């Protein structure tokens, strides 16, 4: 599949998930809150939220900061439509449909960039290059992204049954750090958090996985899973009597230097 067709497929999956996304996105909302808590008090300036979905991060930002201009960018038209419905007509957000890997925005226009659980869907090196391009010198990006180890209870259950997990694999922390090191961005270090959610009903847990729209395969294809056996092994991997979904999340703070670093 070409990169353009894959982006289209990812956007379509998130657009389909958009009407119900809010109900299933409990962990995303927790991550969004943690992300905004990392940010300093802001008094003015422009903030771009990449992969804004239905606007969880922008909601927190609008609540906490008055005189800022907010831009919400997402690949999925359905997510943006859903976001627009929840904001009034005089909302401070400008909504932009676009791809994080090719931002349709001018250079050095943003004081801050945020992105919550979206960049794992992108080529991180392209997305970071774009973030660097649109940030003003001295501007900072606050990003959280899924890392390897996410969904490990579910993946463990699939592997125990001899099946490939339908969930995509994610970059390791070391890979993310290597990708950052290839940019001019200065990292304040990566904070790691594991966010977990438990469900006592198998179909609810599966619906949750589908409801967040995260079901587009980036790598390979999968065979259908044997549901009954999956229930037992997923419970076992979750410590019994429940189905656990865990996100291993890396929180990054990356600043564009006021002057470009020179290579020695
Ligand atoms: C898991 S949702 C997170 C949404 C929101 N940030 C939140 O925390 O609730 C991921 C979002 O990233 C968007 N997305 C995926 N790939 C993207 C890309 N290449 N460019 C822009 N947005 C993208 C999806 O459409 C989706 O809305």
TrEMBL record:
Keywords: Methyltransferase, Transferase. The keyword Methyltransferase applies. It comes from the Bacteria. InterPro entries: Diverse_substrate_MTase (IPR051052), Methyltransf_11 (IPR013216), SAM-dependent_MTases_sf (IPR029063). GO terms for biological process: methylation. Residues 48-143 form the Methyltransferase type domain. GO terms for molecular function: S-adenosylmethionine-dependent methyltransferase activity. Belongs to the methyltransferase superfamily. This is Methyltransferase domain-containing protein.
